[in-house]
Amino acid sequence: MVQDSSTQTLTDLTFKVENVGVYYGSALAVRDVFLDIPKGQIVAFIGPSGCGKSTILRCFNRMNDLIPSARMTGRIIYHDTDIYARSVDPVELRRRIGMVFQKPNPFPKSIYENISFGAKINGYQGDMDELVEQSLRRAAIWEEVKDKLNESGLSLSGGQQQRLCIARAIAIEPEVILMDEPCSALDPISTLKIEELMQELKEQYTIIIVTHNMQQASRVSDKTAFFNAEATESGGKVGYLVEYDDTQTIFTNPQQEYTRDYVSGRFG
Length: 268
Ligand SMILES: Nc1ncnc2c1ncn2[C@@H]1O[C@H](COP(=O)(O)OP(=O)(O)OP(=O)(O)O)[C@@H](O)[C@H]1O
Known about the structure:
By secondary structure, the protein is of the alpha/beta class. 33% of the residues lie in helices and 27% in strands.
């Protein structure tokens, strides 16, 4: 068990991020990130474009492994396991730490198969009809699709497709859901539905969301991490974590002036 110097013990945490940096080739994209992600809460990552929010998000389920030039330094502890340890299977890790992307990306298969596909691959032995219904219900889309489960997932609206993708993520029973700007391609009503859904989901899952929408971060999250980027001597930019605190504190009484300026719309 890794010792924690703060008051929160590791059992309250899903992740402990220790001094994480990410390079793409020789360029350092984001540096020195320390974060405790509490269990069963929603954590939002905000900050101007290019400050490394998505890069850090992708570290949590080793999605950066799929980018050949990417290299991470530091450690991410998931419960008591270093997720970059040799013994960790990234495929199994991604089963426990699901991801929803900016652009809804249902499989070009039926609504039913969008849910059953991953479960089958994972050797699900239970009642598949029940799993499909339960997952779609939990993602608040069952009523809209229950009469057309054999139609293509691609026939749905953008907002419905995103909820289908959330249902697909839920169906493999992850513990964590990573969301990379999940509402940026959606209209306000669909966005509201996803936000409501997140509130329901956090009872069962830890959620980390990257969002450009500050109102969204303040509405949905319990904690907020504000990232910024600064110029490097070589003329590039490197992202870093400016401040991480309860969302209410970040939006009403931040400690750092950069945070205050950003959340009040003075830059970014
Ligand atoms: N696959 C990649 N290859 C090389 N550089 C990359 C790659 N992905 C991101 N970067 C670089 O890393 C830095 C951080 O990018 P990242 O997408 O993580 O930032 P972000 O804060 O999520 O930005 P945005 O809000 O625009 O999505 C940027 O300078 C970006 O150009």
